[in-house]
Please model this.
Amino acid sequence: MSVLIAATALPCGLVIGLLLGALGGGGSILAVPALVYLLGQTPHEATAGALVVVAVGAVGGLLCHARAGRVRWAAGATFGALGTVGSYVGSRCSAALDAKVLMAAFSGLMLVVAAGMLLRGRRDRRGRAEAAAGAVVAGAVPSSWPPAGDVQDSGAPRGSREPREPHGSRAPQDPQHPHDAPDLPGSRRPRPLRTVVTASSVGLLTGFFGVGGGFVVVPALTLVLGLEMPVAVGTSLLVILINSTAALATRAGTGALDWPLLALLAGCAAAGSHLGNRLAGRLRPQTLTTAFAVLVTVLALAMAATTLPDL
Model:
């Protein structure tokens, strides 16, 4: 590894790590363009080598979320194991695909990621606005409303108000029929076929493009397994680690990887991730998301302009 390559890998890894730490995901998608256009790797080497960066980033984030209790190990391991078949198939298909077609497809993936992040930012902004409006409305009503002594809906005498139970905490009427109990948050019953199809699709994406796929894994864990968002984010890192490791093992015999370069890139990404975590508290998330989406869009269009005319 030359000094010039090493000097280029340092800022690339830091930028990838900064985005991973500041945004909680998505930054690893820049590893493939960086490896191809700045570090001289072929598309097939880049999609394989990016898995190393993805795996290292997943380990670092997983440890942080695990200490906070935001990882469902059994659910994540099952979901990741189901995706290993798709990861294997995706890796084989990627290795057999023409390099120019692979890069053109990757530019399309980047456009999808950019659009998804912009939509997510819009939903988050709308949700915060609705929450703020709800807080204003709630603050306009006194906490003692209705006044003590008024007739209750249950017909109880004045002044005999019964304490209300929190929503969702009422026990089932018949303990002999537990299926009548209300579902608790994060306890949605998964559908086996839907879970297998979704996990395989996520693994296919990871194996084919060499990306973590957190932008797909997190919604999948939320919708399919019913995990709450913070838990889904932490658990997704376990899924990403399993899928990226399986894809990397599949590609191990398909060509030599530049391990010193990848170790330097992954190490810089890990260091940048810590800096990104601190940066996230000082900048507006919407600003970071929009800037990242614009960067990904520009890179995707540049890649498409380079590869599409030669197809």
